[in-house]
Write a structure and sequence with these properties.
mainly alpha, two-stranded antiparallel sheet, 25 helices, 2 strands, about 70% helix
Length: about 500
């Protein structure tokens, strides 16, 4: 192990009169930030699992961009500090503050990566969670660090680190990290849960969702102690809608409540909507048309069997229809034909044919028998955005602007990209459904209207652009998927939007 005296810390070096040069400070800060980014990238690469599709590669690049965003923001602030100093050296206090934030960004990103990779590495499901999970998406942790630039929420950052598995060794966290984290979350639950549109509650839900069951239950019981039954149920329902409390945990936390069969079903829908990412994971593994291996399109035994079943079942149904309609060389009418088709043999064949068709289609039996589950889940996600998105008020104002012109224009933007870029698949258009592209789309509509080619003369695109700029979103894909699934656009935008925002009775 080298002697620290032989290799002085650059942080001290730049404050040594011998090296009193602003340029040295700038270069040192750049070097430290770049090394920190490489640490995060190395941690990601260590846990990454090869998914081998363009979409997966895009998502990986996007995630790394989000995870390193606090460092990029810090870099911008350092440059501003240098400009403000007007060629004067930065004080050691400022440099130490920068270093503290740099370390917090690295620790949070690396422990976040390890937490998300704890059940099989950064596979397709983990990556999907990092992009879309309301509580566990990468942007949640990054947003907290950016919000804490002045150190106002150091305790919340420490609680986040604890929930990600950082116990305090070799960091600013003390050995009593758990009680400290529990005390912190309890503090913010008391101050912010009842606040409308709290900026901090999304981080509190996120930390609770990352916590192991025992500390999560302990904190919740401490918060609910002495509260009336209605308040207890309100909190647990919010937590369930956020995907933090499962149905079993709700029973444990509220043992006197007798939940009905419908209550349990609703809890399961809420939990699955937030915690089941199998569908998104599968989408990451889909190779876009034109890039797949032709050998994969060869006839398989499975396809051959399905074809055989379809032909056989179809022949039975058609055959019975024809023999019912034609008897004795004469057409007997459709009544007899229908009767023949509804005999047990035909119904069995028709059922088999339907089963095969469903098996091959994107829909499932559940969708055909019980309605569109995707729409139920999308509606739940919309309500979660309302409860858990710190920027919800601004998003909601944008969608409602101009008698829901915001919602209509946003839906048009999503639909155009889904059709032209995604070929009908919204996930394949993800690279273009981003804030900067939507901003450009609005600018284009402003110009079209100026020259008399506006798609809707009643829409104030300039006002929409100003409203959207105020949101300053990191991403918009969550809303894009919700609007696409629920078809919130056109003349029905207002009705569909407000309908799905209402809590089911």
């Amino acid at each position: 192990m080298s002697n620290p005296a032989e290799k002085p810390d650059p942080l001290k070096k730049v404050n040594d009169p011998k090296y009193a040069d602003t340029k040295v400070q700038i270069l040192d800060q750049q070097d430290r930030t770049e090394k920190s980014m490489k640490e995060i990238e190395a941690a990601y690469d260590t846990e990454a699992r090869k998914i081998r599709t363009p979409m997966a590669d895009y998502q990986a690049a996007n995630l790394l961009s989000v995870l390193t965003l606090p460092l990029k923001k810090l870099g911008e602030e350092i440059w501003q500090d240098m400009l403000d100093a007007k060629d004067k050296l930065l004080s050691e206090d400022i440099m130490t503050k920068h270093e503290k934030r740099r370390k917090a960004a690295v620790d949070t990103a690396i422990f976040y990566i390890k937490k998300m990779a704890s059940e099989g590495g950064l596979n397709a499901e983990a990556v999907s969670r990092m992009v879309s999970d309301q509580n566990r998406k990468a942007s949640r942790a990054a947003d907290l660090l950016i919000l804490n630039k002045d150190g106002k929420y150091d305790d919340l950052v420490d609680a986040m680190l604890f929930s990600l598995g950082h116990t305090g060794e070799s960091s600013s966290l003390t050995a009593g990290a758990q009680p400290k984290a529990e005390k912190t979350i309890l503090k913010y639950l008391k101050s912010d849960f009842d606040k409308p549109n709290s900026d901090l509650m999304p981080f509190v839900w996120s930390i609770l969702s990352f916590m192991e069951k025992d500390p999560k239950i302990a904190i919740t019981k401490a918060y609910l102690k002495g509260k009336p039954a209605a308040k207890v149920e309100e909190f647990l329902q919010r937590g369930n809608a956020m995907g933090v409390f499962s149905g079993e945990e709700m029973k444990e936390l509220n043992p006197t409540k007798k939940y009905t069969e419908q209550d349990v079903k609703d809890q399961q829908i809420n939990w699955a909507a937030q915690n089941d990412f199998k569908k998104q994971a599968a989408a990451l593994g889909i190779t876009p048309y034109g890039t797949e291996n032709a050998a994969g399109k060869m006839i398989t035994i499975r396809n051959a069997i399905l074809l055989f079943v379809k032909l056989g079942a179809g022949a039975t149904v058609i055959g019975n229809f024809m023999t019912g309609a034609w008897q004795g060389g004469k057409f007997q009418g459709f009544g007899k034909a229908v009767k023949r088709v509804t005999n047990p043999q035909s119904l069995g064949a028709l059922g088999l044919l339907t089963a095969v068709t469903v098996f091959e289609s994107k829909k499932t039996f559940d969708q055909l028998l019980y309605g569109n589950k995707d729409q139920e889940e999308a509606a739940v996600k919309l309500r979660k955005e309302k409860k858990g998105n710190g920027k919800w008020t601004k998003w909601d104002s944008f969608f409602r602007a101009g008698d829901f012109a915001g919602a209509r224009v946003f839906f048009d933007f999503v639909s155009i990209n889904k059709s032209k870029i995604g070929g009908g698949d919204i996930d394949k258009a993800a690279g273009n459904i981003i804030p900067s592209q939507f901003g450009k789309y609005l600018e284009g509509m402003i110009e079209r209207k100026k020259i008399g080619k506006g798609d809707d003369d009643n829409v104030d695109y300039a006002a929409l652009k100003l409203a959207f700029d105020k949101i300053k979103p990191e991403e918009i894909m969550s809303f894009a998927k919700i609007f696409d699934t629920l078809n919130i656009g056109g003349k029905n935008a207002k009705d569909e939007y407000e309908k799905h925002l209402k809590e089911p009775k």
